[in-house]
Design brief:
The chain is built from five helices and two strands, in the order ααββααα. The protein is mostly helical. Strands 1-2 form a two-stranded parallel ribbon.
């Protein structure tokens, strides 16, 4: 249970993010957030250790594992032309392109290891973190 004015640590760090408890009105994200949680459970049950839920399973990703990480698409949305894509298509494209370019440049590891204190890391491993937020 929570309130629309309650924010996780990563949401406070990224001041533009909405609370996962914001269920009503413009910009609400809670419905999709909470609807997705059972799917994450389903994925874990189906593939077990072949998937790494970042950062819940740890900040370092073991070799050979697929990764599921939370992102805030609007961080990346305007980094490339939309070329007539819908907002959803643009979000997916922009995130995938950012991941590819960041990996190719050798910087992805920096984003997978954000500059957090030990206490902040403990909190983020419980609450979650958005990839791309430093």
């Amino acid at each position: 249970m929570g309130w629309a004015n309650e924010f996780r640590l990563c949401e406070r760090r990224a001041s533009f993010a909405k609370s996962v408890f914001h269920f009503g009105g413009r910009g609400q994200v809670a419905k999709s957030t909470h609807a997705g949680i059972p799917w994450l459970w389903h994925i874990r049950n189906q593939v077990g250790e072949r998937v790494h839920f970042w950062p819940f399973d740890g900040w370092e990703i073991p070799e050979g594992r697929s990764v599921i990480a939370e992102v805030f698409p609007s961080v990346f949305r305007n980094r490339c032309d939309s070329e007539n894509r819908t907002t959803g298509e643009q979000d997916a494209y922009a995130v995938a392109r950012w991941l590819q370019e960041t990996c190719e440049r050798g910087f992805l590891e920096r984003y997978l290891d954000p500059p957090l204190t030990d206490e902040e890391r403990k909190i983020a491993m419980l609450e979650g973190w958005m990839l791309g937020i430093m």
